[in-house]
Automatic annotation (TrEMBL):
Record's bilayer topology term: Multi-pass membrane protein
Organism: Paractinoplanes tereljensis
Full protein name: Iron ABC transporter
InterPro entries: ABC_BtuC-like, ABC_transptr_permease_BtuC
Pfam family, one: FecCD
PANTHER family: FERRIC ENTEROBACTIN TRANSPORT SYSTEM PERMEASE PROTEIN, FERRIC ENTEROBACTIN TRANSPORT SYSTEM PERMEASE PROTEIN FEPG
Listed GO biological process terms: siderophore-iron import into cell
Similarity remark: Belongs to the binding-protein-dependent transport system permease family. FecCD subfamily.
Transmembrane parts of this sequence: 20-43, 72-90, 102-122, 129-152, 164-184, 213-233, 253-283, 295-313, 319-340
Amino acid sequence: MSGFEFGPIGVPFRPRALLISIGALILLLVLVVAGIAAGSATIGPADVVRTLLGGGTHAQHLIVVELRLPRVLTGVLVGLCLGIAGALTQTFTRNPLATPDIIGVTAGASAGAVGAIVLGGGTYAVTGLLLGSGIPAAAIAGALIASAVTYGLGWRNGVESYRLILVGIGVGSVLTAFTSYLLVRAQIIEATQATAWLVGSLNGTTWDGVRPLLIVTAVAGPLAVACSAPLAIAQLGDETATGVGLGVQRHRLLVIALTVVLTGSSVAAAGPIGFVAFVVPQIAVRIAAASRPPIVLSGLLGGCLVVGADLAARTVFPWVVPVGLLTTVVGAPYLIWLLIRHRREFIS
C-alpha cells in the first residue's frame, strides 16, 4: 500500500476512502445550500450561493448570513465533532458500541450544561461558581468528569472495551438521574429552557454560539487526524504498540481528551444530539471498506447527517421537529441490531 511520510508519521493512501470523502464533502456542501435556502422566505440555491460569495440584496444578506447560516454552520460543526469523537472512541476501544453516547460522556456534558442553565438563571453566561465561563465550559467539565469516572472504574490492569461500555452505561444513568434532579429543583423558566435544550436542536443558534465551536473544531480536528497513525498501531494490541515505541497510555489519554472536548463543545452548542457519534463511524467503515472508522470521512458524514436531519425536520413535517429526535429514530434501531449481533460477547 502506498502512502505519505511526514517525519516519523506515515499516512497510508487509500483511493477509495479519498474518493468517498470527496463525495461526502460535495454532499455536505449541497445540504448546506439546501439548508440555507429552506425557510418561510423563499430563496433559490443560486441566490444563496451568490449571497455567500458577497452578492445578493440587503434582505438576502440578512436572511442568509445573519439568520440561516449560523444554524446550518452549527449543524455542520456539531456533526463534524460528533463524527470524529465517535470514530476516535470506537477505534481506541476496538468496539463499535463504545461511543460518547454509550460510555457516559454525552450524559456528563448534558448534566454540566443543564447545571449551568439552572445555576445561571437561564442565561448563556453563568456567574458565581462557574466564574462566568458559561455553558460550553460547564459541558466540557461535565464530560471530563464523566469520562474520568468511567475510565477509572473500568480500569483493571488495563481497559477492556466491554467493561468500559458497561461502566459507562451505569455512569450515564447516574448522570441522567442527576440531570432530572436539577430539572425538578429548577424554576419553571429554567426547567423549560433546559428541557427544550435536552432534546437536541439547532433552533435559536447565533454567531455567538458558532465561534467557540468553530475554534474547537479547528484545533481538535487536526489533532484527531494526527492521531490516526498511532491509533492504527494501537490496534495491534498494547504490548505490540509499546514494543514499537508508542506510549499507549499517554496516547489513550490524549484521544479521550479530544473526545471529551469535541463532545462537550457540540453538546453545549446544540444539546445532546444522539446517535450521530454512534452511527456515522460504522457507515464510514462499511462504505470505505476500511478496518477501522476513517476519521475525516466520519466527520463529513456526521455533518451530512445532522444538516440533513435538520433540513428534513424543517421541511418534511408540518411542525418543527428537533433534530435530535430524527437522529435518535435513525440510530436506535441500529444500536439494537448491534447489541443483538454482539450479545455472545457480552455474555462471555
